[in-house]
TrEMBL record:
<dbReference type="InterPro" id="IPR011992">
    <property type="entry name" value="EF-hand-dom_pair"/>
</dbReference>
<keyword id="KW-0106">Calcium</keyword>
<keyword id="KW-0479">Metal-binding</keyword>
<protein>
    <submittedName>
        <fullName>Calcyphosin-like</fullName>
    </submittedName>
</protein>
<feature type="domain" description="EF-hand">
    <location>
        <begin position="37"/>
        <end position="72"/>
    </location>
</feature>
<keyword id="KW-0677">Repeat</keyword>
<dbReference type="InterPro" id="IPR018247">
    <property type="entry name" value="EF_Hand_1_Ca_BS"/>
</dbReference>
<dbReference type="Pfam" id="PF13499">
    <property type="entry name" value="EF-hand_7"/>
</dbReference>
<feature type="domain" description="EF-hand">
    <location>
        <begin position="73"/>
        <end position="108"/>
    </location>
</feature>
<dbReference type="GO" id="GO:0005509">
    <property type="term" value="F:calcium ion binding"/>
</dbReference>
<feature type="domain" description="EF-hand">
    <location>
        <begin position="109"/>
        <end position="144"/>
    </location>
</feature>
<dbReference type="InterPro" id="IPR002048">
    <property type="entry name" value="EF_hand_dom"/>
</dbReference>
<dbReference type="InterPro" id="IPR051581">
    <property type="entry name" value="Ca-bind"/>
</dbReference>
Length: 206
């Protein structure tokens, strides 16, 4: 059902975009209009640009990141967004904080069930899910492409990880942050905690 949720969320985000003037909300909706992976994808673009690993961005890098991600935002709106995050006015924003603020708000109950799913997948407990981690948890043998001989087991695992990975830079590894960002997108399209938790329990057999 995630693909359907994704479509519904994208449509809803486009609708809301027409109504809202808040610059941060507008950027959030622009990301969500790309589906559940939208916010995570933007985070990945920024990470690639952060050459010195400072985990910060100045305004020029920020605008370049938005452009690289094909977010057509005029300079004025970009400045408004930047100002919201540049709390101390030093011309630099912390991009972890930026991504957390951009992520649609989630209740603690939702965060907890997402982390349960992540911990179940993260067999080695190192905070990163890889193909190795999936071997005991995710059964590739039911996948139609495995059954008809198109894909190996590893290819099925890789395709599965790609769902959570950024569309532009797939490294076959999924961090807690990427998993959380992905499900924040899914969560945005589901109204009640109860329904979200049932969906997660069913999807991950928790």
């Amino acid at each position: 059902g995630t693909a359907r949720h994704d479509r519904e969320m994208a449509i809803q985000a486009k609708r809301d975009l027409a109504k809202t003037t808040d610059p941060v909300e507008r950027l959030r909706l622009r990301c969500l209009a790309r589906g559940s992976a939208g916010i995570k994808g933007l985070g990945r673009v920024f990470r690639i640009m952060d050459d010195d690993n400072s985990r910060t961005l100045d305004f020029k890098e920020f605008v370049k990141g938005l452009n690289d991600y094909a977010m057509m935002i005029d300079k004025e709106e970009a400045q408004d967004i930047f100002r919201v995050f540049d709390k101390d006015g030093n011309g630099i924003i912390d991009f972890d904080e930026f991504l957390v603020t951009l992520r649609p708000p989630m209740s603690n109950a939702r965060k907890e069930i997402i982390m349960q799913a992540f911990r179940k997948l993260d067999k080695s407990g190192d905070g990163v899910v890889t193909i190795e981690d999936l071997r005991g948890v995710y059964n590739a043998k039911h996948h139609p492409k495995y059954q008809n001989g198109d894909w190996t087991e590893d290819q099925v695992f890789r395709a599965f990880l790609d769902n959570f990975d950024s569309p532009y830079d797939k490294d076959g590894k999924v961090t807690t942050e990427e998993f959380m960002n992905y499900y924040a997108g899914v969560s945005a399209s589901i109204d009640t905690d109860v329904y979200f938790i049932i969906m997660m329990k069913n999807a991950w057999k928790l």
